[in-house]
Amino acid sequence: MNFKQDPKILNSISPKNYLESYFINNEKRKIHKWFHYLEIYEAHFSKFRDTPVNILEIGIDNGGSLQMWKDYFGKNCRIYGIDILEKCKEYEDDQIEIIIGSQEDRNFWKTVKDTCPKFDIIIDDGGHTMNQQIVTYEEMFPFLNNNGIYLCEDLHTSYWPGGYGGGYKGNTFIEYSKNFIDYLHASYSSDVPKTYSGDNIHGIHYYDSMIVIEKRQKPQIFHTITGKI
Length: 229
Description:
Layout: H1 18-24, H2 37-45, E1 54-58, H3 64-73, E2 78-83, E3 96-100, H4 106-115, E4 119-124, H5 130-140, E5 144-153, H6 173-184, H7 196-200, E6 201-207, E7 210-215
């Protein structure tokens, strides 16, 4: 399948929001994103702008997206970037801290949780293998603040065999995350196991190549009737 990567295509796009405008006009460090992600970010992240928000992004590349988040969320944000490459430490500044380690190493995540505050936004844009995505979710979704957002990108690797470990209906993050739908509805069935995810997922949004999970401790569920007959 041929995916267009020609940056000239941006010349024909009129930005619909702040992040699209930033991306199109970016002259700082390189940012490599599927363009449709920007609209999704805006929809789920806008409520955190200009607040003291803690952000974790896994996968740094050239550091461009870290700069984008700093610009977008404002002077009160604190950004943590994780990568396996030591050179990424050079992207640190007064609001950005870089941590070097492997996202599929559960001991590494223990160190992160021992030294960092809980996060309000977690973005998994790391290695995109099935084990990396599953381990990261299992370790870090519980470390997300209530009312936070967990976002995993590039889910199309769930359909790519070989180095990513994907394949249609295989042991993929797509298949793994489908269980969240059952967990969300566990209170209505004696067959569905009760899980941390089920008690703390408020909403699940699937987009092309992305899942966004809204975390909120589940309130008491009830139904009632109001009004006159």
